């Protein structure tokens, strides 16, 4: 069984550091996404992995894992493809139909104001 307490609430909820007390008496600090991201960004900017591991108190292997997860997530973001040309053409046609429909409604309203009888509806 474990219990969780929140420590160091400095700012946004993502910055909350959680300390988890495990049954064996060990105490593990859980890192927020924002803190992990900060360490990974420093690593990607060229800071030493060993230095970051010492400063953060995290094993170098764990920080390297965070870096790999971060890069995979970034790669996935770059895989987004532009919309197929058919979708673009369809959206443009729908926009044009809407525009023409509004224009017809405005013209009908103007004709009614000038006393022109309403147009009979055609059956389909």
> Low-confidence parts, pLDDT < 50 over ≥5 residues?
1-16
The figure for the number of domains is: 2
The total beta strand count reads: 3
The helix tally amounts to: 4
Beta-strand portion reads 5-15%
Helix content range: 40-55%
Largest sheet: 3 strands, antiparallel
Q: Which tags fit this structure?
A:
single chain; 124 residues; mainly alpha; 2 domains; 3-stranded antiparallel beta sheet; 4 helices; 3 strands; 11% strand; disordered N terminus
What is the fold's blueprint, element by element?
Layout lengths: L2 E5 L9 E5 L5 E4 L2 H12 L4 H8 L3 H19 L6 H29 L11
Antiparallel strand pairs: 1-2, 2-3
Helix pairs in contact: 1-3
Short description:
The protein is mainly α.
What does this structure look like?
The chain has 2 domains: 3-78, no CATH class; 83-124, no CATH class. The termini are far apart. By secondary structure, the chain is mainly alpha-helical. A hairpin with a 5-residue loop joins β2 (17-21) and β3 (27-30). The protein contains 4 helices and 3 strands. It has a 3-stranded antiparallel β-sheet, with no helix packed on it. The longest helix is centred in the last third of the chain and has 29 residues, at 85-113. Helices cover 55% and strands 11% of the residues.
């Amino acid at each position: 069984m474990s219990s969780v307490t929140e420590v160091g609430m400095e700012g946004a909820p993502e910055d909350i550091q959680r300390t988890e007390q495990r049954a064996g008496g060990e105490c593990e600090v859980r890192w927020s996404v924002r803190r992990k991201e900060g360490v990974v960004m420093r690593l990607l900017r060229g800071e030493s992995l060993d230095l970051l591991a010492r400063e953060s108190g995290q094993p170098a292997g764990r920080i390297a894992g965070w870096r790999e997860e971060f890069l995979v997530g970034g790669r996935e973001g770059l895989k987004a493809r532009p919309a197929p040309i058919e979708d673009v053409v369809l959206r443009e046609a729908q926009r044009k139909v809407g525009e023409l429909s509004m224009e017809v409604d405005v013209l009908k309203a103007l004709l009614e104001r000038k006393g022109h009888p309403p147009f009979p509806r055609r059956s389909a």
